[in-house]
């Protein structure tokens, strides 16, 4: 006979934490469009020449559209020493290769902003965006997986965005009252960290938190 309650076990399994930590960011979105023209050198190596997309421009053969997504994460946490900036090549998935654009970025834009997403993102909305692993699993020299933006939510204004951020991460040290500097993390952070350790173990959790600190 099992020493555990089968019904309780089913509940625990259903509510088990997801493996891995999804790095989520909040802030005002800015999108820049670039055109890449590929030039083949005498040694056979192709290098891109990048410039801004012109109004009403259509692309010719040998040119690629590239979108640069920037989220102003420092507005709600001025202590951050880095920025959220991701560049995505607008290429569709083919029978030979899947792309970040088709599999991750475009579906999330449509889900959050609707089919008229180009006009919506031009308004510089406040957003919640996950830094999702790229579809091909490409990594940097240090072994860190490159991320691409997966949009989760749009907010009516800065206040709504900040409230959602604080619900997830707690009030940042920058925004907390000076007298509350007791060094104790917000309850939300403690809970997330505990669930993460349950899911992946202390060693892996430590490595993930070093790469993606809470409150970014």
Describe the structure.
The protein is of the alpha+beta class and 216 residues long. It has one domain. Helices cover 30% and strands 26% of the residues. The protein has 6 helices and 6 strands; from the N terminus they run αββββααββααα. Strands 1, 2, 3, 4, 5 and 6 form a 6-stranded antiparallel β-sheet that branches. Helix 5 crosses helix 6.
Write the layout of secondary structure elements.
Blueprint: H1 6-14, E1 24-40, E2 46-52, E3 63-72, E4 84-89, H2 100-113, H3 117-121, E5 126-133, E6 147-155, H4 158-169, H5 187-200, H6 202-211
Antiparallel strand pairs: 1-2, 1-3, 1-5, 3-4, 5-6
What would you say about this model in short?
Strands 1, 2, 3, 4, 5 and 6 form a six-stranded antiparallel sheet that branches.
Kindly list the characteristics that best describe this protein.
alpha+beta, six-stranded antiparallel β-sheet, 6 strands, 26% strand
The structural class is alpha+beta
Largest sheet: 6 strands, antiparallel
**In angstroms, what is the radius of gyration?**
21 Å
Estimate nothing, just give the exact number of structural domains: 1
**Low-confidence segments:** 172-184
Number of strands: 6
